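User: I'm preparing a small set of examples for a lab meeting where we compare how different chains pack in three dimensions. I only have the primary sequence for this one, and I'd like the structure in token form so I can line it up with the others. Please keep the answer compact; I'll paste it straight into my notes.
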Amino acid sequence: MLNRLETPAFKTIDKIDIIKAKKEKLNNGIDFFSINAGSQEITKIEFVFKAGMYYQSAALIASTANTLIESGTKSYTANQISDGIDFFGSFLELEVGQDFAIVTLYSLNKYLDESLKFIEEVIKSPIFPADEFKIHLANKKQKHLINSQKVDILARREFTELLFGKEHPYGVQVKENDFERITLDDIKTFFNDHYHSGNCTIIASGYLPNDILNTLNTFFGNNSWGNTTKINTKTVAIETTKQQKHFIERPDAIQSAVKVGRLLFNKTDPDYFKFQVLNTILGGYFGSRLMANIREDKGYTYGIGSGLASFVNGGYFAISTEVGADVTKQTLEEIYKELAGLRKDLVSDNELETVRNYILGHFLRSVDGPFSLADKFKGIWEFGLDYSYFDNYFKAVKTVTPKELRDLANKYLKEEDLIECVVGKM
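Assistant: Understood. Below is the structure token output for the 426-residue chain.
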């Protein structure tokens, strides 16, 4: 009989076996990855293009092209697309990141063919109506102007520019006059150059129909489509600022936005896994040192955290928070104090074990369900990695020592190597 007065035995996570993506090709050579899992007859199909902001020649082009592909096609108006997809209980999602643009369809299996008819049109035959282009830019400009009054958004924009440089795609800030510079021809050219069968990867996840490959071949695989001429993307030099401290004053600010960090590596670097453990201790979860000090003890903020941003062509580390304008200097002092502690002292065995269990438990939760499995796969595929990445991650988390963490802190978190950006009042 279960004794509820006894604490259950604690069991550590030694290994997680996850369902892996199966690789096939459509008839025209498009890579197709499928993750067949789950119990509900719903399919998620992602059409992934190397068409993120890294590939645009000027600000706003990549995001505008992606947004406007559903604003009308050769066969359907925007309303017909929206109503048609809704009628079958499906959902279309458009997304642009630094490196990739993604068109995602969620569909009931029994209506997959009907839904894909609209997605095929959206991907292959958008017409980019001039009136929709003007409306989109006007709305986006208004949102930009509103966001430009927010200290956290200003700090994020400024910080990435300081790290990567004004001309680097990862560092470019959208300026007000960019909305007048962009043209419809820019959008059409970008779309033609990047949205085609030679630049597309398809990832399907869910309780997949048995004939999913044949279905995708019918709509996207029997012939090449789009302008499949390969575009040579130039490598842009990173020009990190040499000035360490940056302050943008906002006299009316109630809060100050604080960013402290540096240019670093992406997830292909050998130090990435163990640095993730170090980052979690510092500011990567609710029980982190930054939260315990600056939120719980000092009461300067509702939240503070740190993290690694990993892009295909670079990455960075950042500590981020918003604090009362009257305690900005004190917050910075406490941040540097916590960093100094990591460089000087060994992490205790108890703290390290707590963080290990948090990281492994968080990973376990993050692979619950087919769509989550697809996200995990995308996270390695984008960097040319395979599933051994997760085994190596587990091994690093379970074996990293306090001394290795202190060495990493001294290697990457020296105060003189960090860039500080504050927007608000000091």
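A couple of notes for your slides: The CA atoms of residues 71 and 213 lie 28 Å apart. The longest strand covers residues 314-324.

User: Perfect, thanks.
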